[in-house]
Every structure is written in structure tokens, then in C-alpha cells.
Design a protein that fits this description.
By secondary structure, the protein is mostly helical. The protein has one domain. It is built from three helices and two strands; from the N terminus they run αββαα. A two-stranded antiparallel sheet has the order 1-2. A hairpin with a 7-residue loop joins strand 1 and strand 2. About 5% of the residues are buried.
Length: about 80
């Protein structure tokens, strides 16, 4: 079950992750919509997220530990 904190930053991060995974991931046939990611460093993806937030003028967004926790809970 998805566990998403009820904050604007968490909802925005969840939407960012969903969009990002749909861009870089592979949706293989017969996997019921499951997206496969190549092996990647979570810290690198967090940096992309943080840079994207800064580019769009956000001063506050999730920290790396919150980002990783959300990834594990919402996108197992």
C-alpha cells in the first residue's frame, strides 16, 4: 500500500518521481504497468530532483532521506 505523507512537498515529489520514472524507465510487456529502471544511484536521481526544484524556484523540497524513504514506500 502506498504511504504518501500529506504535505505539498511530498505530493509534488511523488508526481516528479512518477513522471521521471516514466521517462527513463522501460515498461515491459505483460508486467501490468510495472516500470523497470536500469541500475542507478539514488543519490544521483535525488540531485536531479533537487536541481529541478531549484530551477523552478522552489526553496524548500524533500531532503535526501525523505526522498529515499518515499521511493522505497511508494515505488517498491
Amino acid at each position: 500500500m502506498m504511504q504518501l505523507p500529506n504535505t505539498a512537498d511530498s505530493v509534488a515529489c511523488y508526481a516528479w518521481m512518477r513522471y521521471y520514472f516514466s521517462l527513463i524507465g522501460d515498461c515491459e510487456p505483460n508486467t501490468d504497468g510495472e516500470v523497470h529502471l536500469e541500475p542507478c544511484n539514488v543519490q544521483d536521481i535525488y540531485e536531479e530532483y533537487a536541481n529541478d526544484q531549484r530551477i523552478h524556484g522552489k526553496r524548500e523540497f524533500l531532503g535526501v532521506s525523505q526522498f529515499i524513504k518515499m521511493w522505497k514506500n511508494c515505488f517498491p
